């Protein structure tokens, strides 16, 4: 259940990489695309750097990207990479082992996700994302999703600056993601896409951030811990607003073995005439609720992802409508809600 990354030794001199020593134990690493040019709509391109072999911890992530250029940016940790070119085509997903994979062997760990001009993320004091050392995170890979082809002569140097430390903090950070497969029918004002999974690990975790990710149809996404029939909100946000790691709704919340985790993406497909499938392109959709957590567990963590099928699962299969929080599909109380209404040509909150 972790994401991870650190750096100090370099993959290639052609990469835009700088390391600044701020103290004897803290470093900042910047990695950027080198004049990347998408060759097709929804192009996925990667660049990478080899990390310092000594165990390290990420404590801050500062993206350098614009929604005018990039649909989204992912930062992954890999044991090995398929290419040592300064930029390579990386459209293959997990499970593939080709020259177009993100990682050699296909396995990758999520370190950071960015979209919609999201700001930097600083982890709480005494928490860090573990990389290098005994982990399988030996390389950091930055993947850019370009929605469209650039005008002639335009290139991209998007990237990220990551601050790391060699000092082991009391807690390490990891990711747990609720997600979906399936499709969204057209002409729906509030179509629910829902996930529900049991937390089975034998150690408690403490959410320290959450992120919602959908494309054009995402109206609002909410996530909850369900324990003994009681729902506690982890977070609720519109993916049409900056897709950053927001502070959780209930700081100090514990998730322990046996707790259930629930999410709902409310989709508005009123402007679509055809079915929209969950997939990777900007014309497709996604329903992802990211939970960044802290734990005292010192074992190596890996990202946990839980999927449900949109067409075969609904929270109302388990709960009555009255048991599900009444604001699970609402923008009420969310700053910036008026921008979301404008996006969907709406005048009132649902």
UniProtKB/TrEMBL annotation:
* Cofactor comment text: Binds 2 Cu(2+) ions per subunit.
Q: Which cofactor does it need?
A: Cu(2+)
Molecular function in Gene Ontology: copper ion binding; peptidylglycine monooxygenase activity
Domain (Copper type II ascorbate-dependent monooxygenase N-terminal): give its ranges: 31-148
- The residues covered by the Copper type II ascorbate-dependent monooxygenase C-terminal domain are 174-312
UniProt-listed InterPro entries: Cu2_ascorb_mOase-like_C, Cu2_ascorb_mOase_N, Cu2_ascorb_mOase_N_sf, Cu2_monoox_C, PHM/PAL, PHM/PNGase_F_dom_sf
UniProt similarity note? Belongs to the copper type II ascorbate-dependent monooxygenase family.
**Enzyme nomenclature, EC number:** 1.14.17.3
User: GO CC terms for this protein?
Assistant: extracellular region; membrane
Naturally occurring in which organism (per UniProt)? Elysia chlorotica (Eastern emerald elysia)
Set out the biological process GO terms recorded for this chain's protein: peptide metabolic process
Q: Per its record, how is this protein called by name?
A: peptidylglycine monooxygenase
Which Pfam families does the record match to this protein?
Cu2_monoox_C, Cu2_monooxygen
Where found, per UniProt? Answer: Secreted
Keyword terms: Copper, Disulfide bond, Glycoprotein, Metal-binding, Monooxygenase, Oxidoreductase, Secreted, Signal
Q: Which residues form the signal peptide?
A: 1-22
Q: List the disulfide bonds.
A: 46-90, 78-103, 197-306, 265-287
Keyword tRNA processing applies:
no
Task: Please write the reaction equations for the catalytic activity of this protein.
Answer: a [peptide]-C-terminal glycine + 2 L-ascorbate + O2 = a [peptide]-C-terminal (2S)-2-hydroxyglycine + 2 monodehydro-L-ascorbate radical + H2O
| Annotated positions binding Cu(2+) | 71-72, 145, 213, 215, 286
The cross-references to PANTHER family, in alphabetical order and at most eight, read: PEPTIDYL-GLYCINE ALPHA-AMIDATING MONOOXYGENASE (PTHR10680)
């Amino acid at each position: 259940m972790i994401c991870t990354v650190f750096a100090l030794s370099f993959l290639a001199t052609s990469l835009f990489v700088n390391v600044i020593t701020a103290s004897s134990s803290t470093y900042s690493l910047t990695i950027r695309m080198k004049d990347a040019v998408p060759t097709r709509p929804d192009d996925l391109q990667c660049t990478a750097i080899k990390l310092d072999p000594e165990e390290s911890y990420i404590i801050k992530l500062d993206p350098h990207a614009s929604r005018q250029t990039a649909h989204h940016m992912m930062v992954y940790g890999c044991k090995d990479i398929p290419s040592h070119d300064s930029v390579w085509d990386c459209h293959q997903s997990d499970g593939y082992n080709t020259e177009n994979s993100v990682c050699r062997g296909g396995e990758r760990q999520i370190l950071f996700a960015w979209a919609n001009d999201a700001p930097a993320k600083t982890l709480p004091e005494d928490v860090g994302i573990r990389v290098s050392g005994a982990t399988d995170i030996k390389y950091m890979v930055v993947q850019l999703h370009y929605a469209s082809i650039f005008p002639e002569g335009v290139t991209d140097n998007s990237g990220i600056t990551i601050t790391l430390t060699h000092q082991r903090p009391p807690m390490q950070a990891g990711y747990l993601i609720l997600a979906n497969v399936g499709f969204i029918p057209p002409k729906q004002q509030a179509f629910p896409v829902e996930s529900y999974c049991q937390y089975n690990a034998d150690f408690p975790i403490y959410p320290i951030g959450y992120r919602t990710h959908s494309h054009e149809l995402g109206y609002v996404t909410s996530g909850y811990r369900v324990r003994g029939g009681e729902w506690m909100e982890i977070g609720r946000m519109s993916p049409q607003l900056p897709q950053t790691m927001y502070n959780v709704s209930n700081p100090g919340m514990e998730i322990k073995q046996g707790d259930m985790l629930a999410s709902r993406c409310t989709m508005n497909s009123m402007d679509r005439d055809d079915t929209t499938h969950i997939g990777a392109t900007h014309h497709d959709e996604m329903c992802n609720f990211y939970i960044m957590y802290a734990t005292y567990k010192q074992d190596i963590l890996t990202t946990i992802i839980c999927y449900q099928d949109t067409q075969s699962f609904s929270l109302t299969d388990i709960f009555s409508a009255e048991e599900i929080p009444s604001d699970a599909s609402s923008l009420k109380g969310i700053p910036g809600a008026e921008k979301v209404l404008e996006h969907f040509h709406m005048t009132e909150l649902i």
